[in-house]
Every structure is written in C-alpha cells, then in structure tokens.
Amino acid sequence: MGNFLLTFVHASSSYGIRRQLWQELSLLGTSGQAWAVIGDFNIVTSIAERKGGGTPCISAMDDFNHFIHLNALIDSTTSGFKYSWCNKRWGSKHMLQKIDRMLVNQDWLKGNVGWRSKILKRKLSDHSPIVGWNTCIPKPHNIPFQFRKAWLSHDTLREVVADSWNEPLYDVPIRKVVKKTEKAEAKVEKLEF
Predict the structure, then answer these.
(1) Which InterPro entries match (predicted)?
(2) I need a surface site. Which of 18, 37, 45, 65 has the fewest CB within 10 A?
(3) What is the number of other CB atoms lying within 10 angstroms of the CB of residue 51?
(4) Residues in a beta bridge with 172
(5) Residue range 63-82, pLDDT digits in tens
(6) 3-class secondary structure, 50
C-alpha cells in the first residue's frame, strides 16, 4: 500500500514449516520499506505469553524471536487483552496464548507517527481481532482553501483575486483551479488590515 509493505501471516502449527516461513519473510525485511507483519504466528515469544497447557517449544520460540530481532521488528500489540487465542476448553485443559500480533519496523513507525495496535475481545472465533491506528494524525499537505470573512472588508480584495486568476497558467484544468486558488490565497493573506 503506497510506500508501506503489509504482510498478513497465518503460520503453520508445524515447527519446521514455520522456520521456513521466518526465512521467507526475512527476505521481505531486507526491502528497506516501512513494513508491518500481522496475523497468527502460531508461536509465543516467551513462556509468559502462555497460560495453561504444557511448556511451549523453546527452540520454536527462539527461532521466532530470532526472526523478530533479525528484522528489527517491534511488537506494537501492547494494549488490549493479554492473550489473543483461547482453545475454548474448560478446567485443566483451558489454554490462552498470545500468538496473534502486529510486528512493525522503525520505518513503519516513522511513517505512522504514534502507531499502536490492540488485541480486542474474542467473539465468535478462538482468535481475537487486532486493530491498529495512529494516535497522532499528521496534518495533510493539501489543506483546502480557507476563507476569512475579514477579507471582504478590504478595499482591494476584488482586484487582487482578479489579477491572480487572470495570470496565464498552463496545466490541466483541475490543477489550474488549485494553483490559481493557492496563488490568490497567498496574495490575499498578505493584505494588511
């Protein structure tokens, strides 16, 4: 999407197949683009991200952590629920894990100032949805023309705008309108009251 690379993942539950996925994804990480990887990674980064069930495979966790560090990725999924998956069993067989997340690189964070993602409540699926957003919305570069009522009271407003619009300009029609409006606005803002 534009200058951003989004990768959606549904990793296999098989340790060997996941290892291959980490290698293939690492090739994308060398592109130098702003990158976000989101989805079901089917592995936790630490024992603390699992509640219930047996101990997760240490070498599988190490491989996943190596992939994260090798590609300088940061887990932006730091708010909301602690766990993103539930096996929907009860009692001693009940298990919760954080296997869904959104990983981003520094270029992603530079291009999306204030980026955050959140694990939402599970509803129908055994996986929780993840939502991401910018906490800071950057000011757009194409701010529309703004009109100040005080300009109407200036004696030379009509002439300034007419002169600006009558200047020859060669471009496609819509850009002519935009450029002439910008020129007129710049000249009007210089008027002294």
Answers:
(1) Endo/exonu/phosph_ase_sf
(2) 65
(3) 14
(4) none
(5) 999 999 999 999 999 889 99
(6) strand
